[in-house]
Amino acid sequence: MPILFGVILLDLIGFGIVIPILPFMSPELGADKIDIALIIVTYAACAGISGPFWGRLSDRLGRKPVIMICLAGAAVSYGLLAMASVLWMIFAARAFAGVMAGNLGVASAMMSDLTPPENRARGMGLIGAAFGLGLMLGPLLGGVLAGDNGSFTLPCLVAGLMSLLAIIAAALFLPESVTAERRAASHRQHRDGSGQPLFTMLRETGNRMLVFQFLLHAAAVSSLTYLVPLWLGDLLDWRAREVGMVFGVQGAIIVLLQGGLLGVLVRFVGEWRLLRICILIFLCGLALAVFARTTGWMLSAIFLAMSGASLCMPLLNTITSYRIPAVFRGRMLGTTSSASSWGRVAGPLLAGVNLALFGYTGAWLGCVFIVLVYLTWALTAEPSLRRASPGTPES
């Protein structure tokens, strides 16, 4: 678990470096706000297409080689981004990065392999803590490397270096979590065609609506991530350095919540009740953003919304891992990762259109509507999530 945490952390620091960079890098090459949304959508759409593939491949070949392949792809994509001199090159770099973005789904499947059910939420919280640290250290590093002059080549190269370091760490220290027997079973199903089609598997395990919540969650979070740099830039005249510091502080909060408090909260409250509370906190932060116009209220809205949202994903992953046979775990978590990617397609597009038509008030209200649907499901769907899944859920 600590080794997996370290590998994913290195990768996510590189991912985090470009978060405060792209909204300011792209306009220098002629992009407007809609173009920035389309750049985010390009990455997410490619990740949505490739996510189930990486999950299935990790069931057949093992988690470790797939993680290393995806890390190599990330390193190449950052190098392409560093060389971007016209707008289409940014689109191409982010499209390739999306195709290779299978790590989080595969890492979640590996963490599920490594943890017994009673410690699963804590293990998923470690993945979330790695994301939080990456969100803290990456944007801070990206903002510092960009400097006052807004140089973007160096941050992109350093992001690529972080992925290369993660490959080395994985090669040297990361063990394989999928047993030879499970890999052989997955190979047999692939070879003789006995494996269930994806939609059949989701229907028979009762997980179709659960997968849809990954899409809703990601749509809301990606809308938030898209809007925050533009919001702070337009209303407060902040640049990459200041935006990076905001994400850095939020990353520290996420580390505290997911790395320290999540396991304790799950023991006292339970996964399902805690998920409802976190979605409600997410909703309150977005509702506050609708009315916030001063620095203090704007930052409060950002931190409240992101803190609530950050705890939802490990809880959703934990619930998902309980509801799928181990032999399909990579495939299922690859599917939920793909659903999240399609949410990251829909979110920035919706936010970008709302921003162009109705300003920031309309854009934030669109986010509020998405999370209201998400909360409605959480308040009404508990019985269906407690049905037993076909097959053996753990092995």
Structure write-up:
The chain is globular, with a radius of gyration of 20 Å. The chain has helices spanning 2-17, 22-28, 33-61, 63-82, 87-99, 103-114, 120-146, 153-173, 180-192, 198-204, 208-236, 240-269, 271-291, 295-322, 329-380, 382-385. Helices cover 83% and strands 0% of the residues. Residues 383-395 have low confidence and may be disordered. The longest helix is centred in the last third of the chain and has 52 residues, at 329-380. With 395 residues, the protein is an all-alpha fold.
Give me some keywords for this one.
single chain, 395 residues, mainly alpha, Growth Hormone, Chain: A, 16 helices, disordered C terminus
CATH class designation: Mainly Alpha
Please report the total strand number as a whole number: 0
- Contiguous runs where pLDDT drops below 50 for at least 5 residues: 383-395
Helix and strand composition category:
mainly alpha
